Amino acid sequence: MFSLWKAVLSESLLGYISWSLYHALPPMIYYFPLQTLALTGLEGCAVAFFSPIFLITGPFWRLANNKYILALLRLTMVGSLASYQAPNASIRLLILAAGVSSSLLVQTVTWWSGNSLQRFIRIWGFMLGKIMLLVLRIWYTSLNPVWSSQAANTVILAIAFIAAVERIYSGEDKRKQEANKTGNAVRETVSHPHWLLSGIAFGSLMFLTLWIFGEVSLISRWAVSGHPDTGPDPNPYGGTVLLGLAHGLMLSFWSWSSVTSFAWFLVGLASSAGLLYLHTWSAAVAGNILAVFTMCVWPQLAGRLVSCVHPGKAMSTAMFAYVLELFFCVWCTAYKFVPGGIYARESSHLLLGFIMLCIGVDFLMGPKKDLSSVFEVKSNQRSLFKKSKNYIKLLLWLFVGVGLLGFGLRYKNYQNKLGQGVPKRDFSAMIWPFRFAYDNEGWSSLEGSANLLNQTDADFITIIESDASKPFIGNTDPTMWLGERLGFYTDFGPSTRDHTWGIMVLSRYPIVKSTHHLLPSPEGEIAPAISMTVNFTGQLVDFVVAHFGNEEEDLDRKLQAIAVSNLLKTSSKQVVFLGYITSAPGSRDYTELIENGNVQDIDSTDRDRWCSYIMYRGVIRLGYARISHAGLSDSEVQMAKFRIPEHLDSYVDNDRIVTDPSQVPEDIHFNPRFGSYKVGHNYEHIHHFHMSTPKYFKQTN
Questions:
Q1: Would residue 348 be called left, alpha or beta, if left means φ above 0 and alpha means ψ between -120 and 50 degrees?
Q2: pLDDT band of 178, cuts 50, 70, 90
Q3: Does residue 392 sit in helix, strand or coil?
């Protein structure tokens, strides 16, 4: 029936909108403390998730159930998508908060009101909306299209508005027959009184789905290791995660005995432990099993939630659990910047264990039936329920097919781009802290970053503060996005589960081998590093890249400098170091790297540095440049050019600095698009050479 199809499609689209809002608010809140490295008070906008608490009281429930108020809430939810086009981050945050609040009110009212078939389709629409979100992120290479460009935002806003209006008018006649009181909201439901347990379990399930399955590449990033055995690459193996989630939803249509349910829970529990503690392919397999388990329990836990006779209490409890778990996830990594963080340091295992326990208790206590069995289906509705299930299954596999097609096209395109570096002895390397792909105004900087990296013509790029796969940063994968856009080989760095802020490598030339390191960090945030070998068309060069701890953690930085100097010492005769070491030139840590690491500074005359440094051994320095960030990040780009000597035992390094590019061959010039030599900072909102660069090096005659 067309009306059923229309209902399933509209509810799925509105489910996608709700998930998009729930995904978007935490990163928008996080943007502000990211600017200050401290709590700002705007974290209070998380109270938007607590809007269902108003529905605990009868007058508010009746008000929200009014058809005009509900229509207004629906339109507010959809209209909040326009927050992407807000003039600044503060206004965007407030609009997003209003959208999240409205969405949760609509979700609570509609899940507990209406006839059984309506409620069944709405709940399934929310789950299918999650799959739709994942599929769209596949096609947009980890990004949600509604937050990726104004054009996509406008198109989705218009379609969502049509879906919302359709739902408003399609439900109006039927809603006239519904009493506006909580008792009738559960009249056709097999009710139970455990709203506290069901609320905590459902909120935990929602957070698990956001945290680990917010994007299909995340499992690969939890399991990643160094080259050559990196584990499954997210493109195309993220497709197996999508298949796992879809198969989980299909399994939910079965009825389970108590024995099989308990065994299945043990499998889910074991898979969560495997994702945390196994490595590469083993961890990825565990993650895929967890995907099946997670979506398999979704309909049952959602059904138990809506069986509660107190909708406001049940959904409010769910959101309290969701927000508390989200904040605990932040505390696990950002423990140095938040009160009481030391008690949550690197405690993701406790968080995941608690979530699985909450889900398991509710899963095992409830009836082992599919979602439709929660409702007392009248005989004249059974055929409609059966048709609805068929439409839901068909739409689910249509989404999966579209997602797998997206992976296939992306993979083919990426493979065609790789390996196009021309044979040469000269190469350029750069380092850039790019703050999780957010610019200084709070918007995604990926497009601008790709343009900047392209213009530098760098062959080897290390980007720090790169792990945006955490739920409070956006569940995105900048490593994959930039690698595919630029056609570069990639190394993600230490995995997401290692609680670092991330360090990635992009290389125009193949990465032969790499090892991920967690540097000694007894007091501060976990410091990541990578040591690797790159094949420049037959010439092997080692690289060591690192992100040290903060200035305040003196012991950490001392131990980290010693650890990195040992990595440099044990590297080959030809090695380049690119690091963020939060120390001045000539300082203890700087000297440790130079002397014990047996490397040279690219420009020892540059005394106006604090964070980023480039050092080398066994190659000839050709040029050095610093490029202003132009608001794309809070830190500049540093670049160096090197030449691999023909005879390692008899080469002579360049020892003379020149600032006139005409004194060196044109093929080693930096891109003139960044202007010419400039003394001091560049404060213009353009990328430009600054800080007395570019400099070139030649031999003294």
A1: alpha
A2: very low
A3: helix
Rounded to 10 deg, the angle between the 150-175 and 67-79 helix axes is 170
For the chain, give the mean pLDDT.
92
Determine the Cα–Cα distance for residues 19 and 77; give it in Å rounded to an integer: 11
Dist. CA 115–CA 333, nearest whole Å: 45
pLDDT at 185 over 80: no
- How far CA 363 is from CA of 94, 260, 288, in Å, comes to 36, 12, 20
Helix (H) or strand (E) run with residue 65 in it: helix 58-65
**486-522 per-position pLDDT tens digit:** 999 999 999 999 999 999 999 999 999 999 999 999 9
| Contact present, 175 and 114 (Cβ < 8 Å) | yes
pTM for this entry? 0.94
Terminal-to-terminal C-alpha distance of the chain: 86
280-306 and 195-211 helices, crossing angle to 10°: 150
What is the C-alpha to C-alpha distance for residues 411 and 234, in angstroms, rounded to an integer? 10
Least confident range of 288-302, 337-351, 472-486? 337-351
* Residue 570 CA: distances (Å) to CA of 236, 406, 544, 565, 574: 35, 43, 11, 9, 11
> Of the ranges 137-141, 356-360, 378-382, 439-443, which one carries the lowest mean pLDDT score?
378-382
Q: Express each pLDDT in 231-278 by its tens digit.
A: 999 999 999 999 999 999 999 988 778 889 999 999 999 999 999 999
Helix pair 58-65, 311-333: axis angle to 10 deg: 90
**Chain position carrying tokens 């410091």:** 527
The SS3 call for residue 250 is helix
**Mean pLDDT, rounded, for 160-186:** 65
- Where does residue 701 rank: exposed (0-12), middle (13-18), buried (19+ CB within 10 A)? exposed
Annotate 526-555 with b (16+ C-beta within 10 A) or e (fewer): bbbbbbbbbbbeebebbbbbbbbbbeebee
- pLDDT at residue 448 is higher than 90: yes
DSSP state, 497? G
C-alpha radius of gyration, the chain, whole number: 27
CA–CA separation, 678 and 637 (whole Å): 15
Measured in whole angstroms, how far is the alpha carbon of residue 376 from the centre of its chain? 40
Q: Give CA angle at 217 (215, 223), nearest 5°.
A: 125
The residues, ordered by sequence, that sit 6+ positions from 574 with a Cβ below 8 Å of its Cβ are 540, 541, 542, 617, 618, 619, 644, 648
Q: For residue range 571-616, what is the model confidence (pLDDT) as tens digits?
A: 999 999 999 999 999 999 999 999 999 999 999 999 999 899 999 9
**Distance separating alpha carbons of residues 472 and 30, to the nearest angstrom:** 6
- Would you tell me how many other CB atoms lie within 10 Å of the CB of residue 76? 18
Q: Is 668 exposed, middle or buried (0-12, 13-18, 19+ CB in 10 A)?
A: middle
What phi and psi values does residue 55 have, to the nearest 5 degrees?
Answer: -80, 0
Which candidate, 94, 75, 74, 92, places its Cα nearest to that of 84? 92
